[in-house]
Amino acid sequence: DGGITQSPKYLFRKEGQNVTLSCEQNLNHDAMYWYRQDPGQGLRLIYYSQIVNDFQKGDIAEGYSVSREKKESFPLTVTSAQKNPTAFYLCASSTFRTTNEKLFFGSGTQLSVL
Amino acid sequence: GDSVTQMEGPVTLSEEAFLTINCTYTATGYPSLFWYVQYPGEGLQLLLKATKADDKGSNKGFEATYRKETTSFHLEKGSVQVSDSAVYFCALRATGNQFYFGTGTSLTVIP
Prior knowledge:
- The structure holds two protein chains of two kinds.
- By secondary structure, chain A is mostly beta strands.
- Chain A has strands at 4-7, 10-13, 19-25, 31-37, 43-51, 54-57, 64-66, 76-78, 87-94, 104-105, 109-113.
- Chain A contains no helices and eleven strands.
- The relative contact order of chain B is 0.34.
């Protein structure tokens, strides 16, 4: 079955530590996205990538970094510069075949600060 | 810029009540419109979509019609069930392949 796999499901970060959230898809999608979701709020775009080795900042990129070395993978690093990292992180992917294609979502990673 | 404005919640309904969640959008061009549903601790799942004016998306008893004249895509269901309790997000796909989401509406259905 095709889909998006996010890991881990839960992650804890210590003060001053960088942590990396994994996102892998086997849907052969060109575009991948990272969103942050805070309780009771909508989704805010962190980064997105439309092609391998290229990515763009979203609305809240500060304190985060990404890479896109393979089509299937789009890991997100939450750096120590992100002072309020506690949130639910969602990875998504889509294709460009037509403009009505939906976003496919992973099951999310809950990041908390120790 | 492109954006989605969604009715704020939370919404609490009794089982078998009628549901409406309002959604309006601002976009250049002709976006595709979506409703997603999120259950606790999970990612978002597509509920329904519409790709052009006057299209009606439907799934699991939910419906929404793409109204270009009012720039709206309201979600409706005639008779909600306890299992419909979730957070619902309205979204649009803009011409630049970016997606824009509303803030979500939490629905609780009580027996």
